[in-house]
Amino acid sequence: MPLFPQRFIDDLKHQADIIVVIQDYVSLKKTGATYKGLCPFHGEKTPSFHVNRDKGFFHCFGCGVGGDVFKFLELHEKIGFADSVKLLAQRFGVALPEMEQSDEQRANAAERETLLKVHEAAAAWFRQQLAGGAGVRVRKQIDARGITSATSEALGLGYAPNSRDALKAALLEEGFSQAALLRAGLLVQRDDGSIVDRFRNRLMIPICRDTGSVIAFGGRAVDADQQPKYLNSPETPIYSKGRTLYGLNLSKNAIRERKFAILVEGYFDFAQAYQAGFQGVVASCGTALTPQQAQQLRRFTNKVVLSFDPDAAGQGAAAKSCEILVAEGFAVNVAVLPAGDDPDTFVRTHGAAGYAERLEHSTPYLEYLLDRAAAAHNLNTDEGRVNFLGDMLPVAGRIPDAAMRDRFADRLAFKARVTDEVVRAEIRRAVVQRQPALTNREVPSFGQVTKAEKGLIWLLVHQSADALAALETLDGPDFDGLASRSALEIAQKLNEDKGFSPSTLLERLTTVEARLVTAIASEGEAHVHDAHDCVRILKRLRWERERAAIQREIDRLQEAGAHDGEKLQELLVRKYDVIQRIEALI
Ligand SMILES: [Zn+2]
């Protein structure tokens, strides 16, 4: 959180009594050491929402939500961390720290301001060209694509005429410098040194921030033989392709209201869906979604329906987008269209009702993948079943939520027609052990956390000194595979930096991780009362894992026919050593 100095955050937390803040929204009653009230995040009649003033956190036993005072505001007001800090500072009359601005930062701010103005002026000029005589042909093309003039206006479509430097002349006339136009990517310098318009004879599609400011353009070829078909603005100080979702400026309110977003690929898919009344739509513009784009979307919803043609669904950009969304914790459905159709062509031929029906009958993405993989293999043969599992296990590994992953494992076993409970357990284990490839942090679920971890976390919050001393004796491999890994590692890091406090820990955790910690910390007593016992158990678990890994390797070698040999001997020696270590810890 580089935006605010930590000292300021700590001061503010000191001032901003969590009870006072939450009481602005929830009526709280003191019961024993904590305060209780009706949870503002889920409907309930008996209070299960607890606030702990001393430790500075809240937790709901009903819906599991929890965190520190900033997190409460973030969730309740649906704002980001920085805004919740500002809100609290205002509420408690704490002055925000002077954000020191260097000359360079000031220059950057001025530069961005100029670039925004350039884009606004260019968008207006392109619209004028489309409306004028030069735009007749393109207007006809837009019309032929079934886009009404109202939609064209909503999208801000324009036309860059077939001219060497008409835009340049117009914007210089308006007082913009050639240098600014170059930096905005609207002009390009040719090899011979001449500076000319980048976009010529193109239908211009403005790309906006979700606030509506134009920050870039997509330009579509007007002539059939014109290359490339799409020409886009380059990356600039105000535009980064991987951080921008096309159309979010128009669709964010509808997405929030309808509680899901429709994700399509192209500008015209967007235009048709939007025009047909599906206003909660965004376009990824042909490339796979990035985690940053997914996070943008999450400000408005956590559910996405993708619609694309069935060939694209299983591969390429669309499949990658699905995986990113799943890894970012979205509920993802797939609305498959007939082969060869995209939302643009489908809406034009089948109308809004047809499209609505497809969306309504969309399937959860993971189910969809299962069905596809099941159809691709002959599940009546052992080989087919093994290959099917081989295809699906990596998919399972990328599901961030442990409970969801476990359910997927059961679906997998069912599809593979595995009836043997031992094999089913194997599949579950393989699935759970897989680390998600796309998220850096394992998202824990409560049930997956061992007693020793719960004990240690409870003690970290309520008896920090002892717990920190014990925690210090754990190292990297001890944390491997633990559901609470990142909470424990962050606590350890904070302690090394002499900055540990329960609320600083909560501040550093993701929403899901914070829930886990507050859930444990809200319990009346520790699952394991001595922090050193917790550490001993965790160390033992680590060596148990090591022993299991060695045993698997031994089994593998023996199955392959090796009954002695150096490798096997070495493994047996290691196994013996590990067993000694385990016994020392019992
Ligand atoms: Zn609740």
Task: State the share of residues found in helices, binned by percent.
Answer: 40-55%
Question: Which structural class best describes the helix and strand composition?
Answer: alpha+beta
What is the overall pLDDT average?
85
List the ligand species: zinc ion
Describe this structure in words.
- Mean pLDDT is 85; it is low at 435-446.
- The relative contact order is 0.06.
- This protein is of the alpha+beta class.
- Zinc ion is lined by residues 39, 41-42, 49, 60, 62-63, 65.
Topology:
Blueprint (H helix, E strand, L loop, with lengths): L5 H10 L2 H6 L5 E3 L2 E4 L11 E4 L4 E4 L5 E2 L1 H9 L3 H11 L11 H29 L4 H9 L4 H7 L2 E3 L5 H8 L4 H6 L3 E3 L5 E3 L4 E7 L5 E8 L8 E3 L15 H11 L2 E4 L2 H9 L5 E3 L7 H8 L4 E6 L1 H4 L2 H12 L3 E6 L6 H18 L2 E2 H12 L5 H16 L4 H14 L5 H13 L17 H12 L1 H8 L4 H4 L5 H12 L5 H7 L2 H11 L9 H29 L6 H19 L2
Parallel strand pairs: 12-13, 12-14, 14-15
Antiparallel strand pairs: 1-2, 2-3, 3-4, 4-5, 6-9, 7-8, 9-10, 10-11, 15-16
Helix pairs in contact: 3-4, 11-15, 16-17, 16-18, 17-18, 17-19, 18-19, 20-21, 20-26, 21-26, 26-27
The protein binds zinc ion.
Brief sketch in words of this structure:
The protein has 586 residues and is α+β, with helices and mostly antiparallel strands.
Which features does this protein show?
54% helix, five-stranded antiparallel sheet, 586 residues, binds zinc ion, alpha+beta
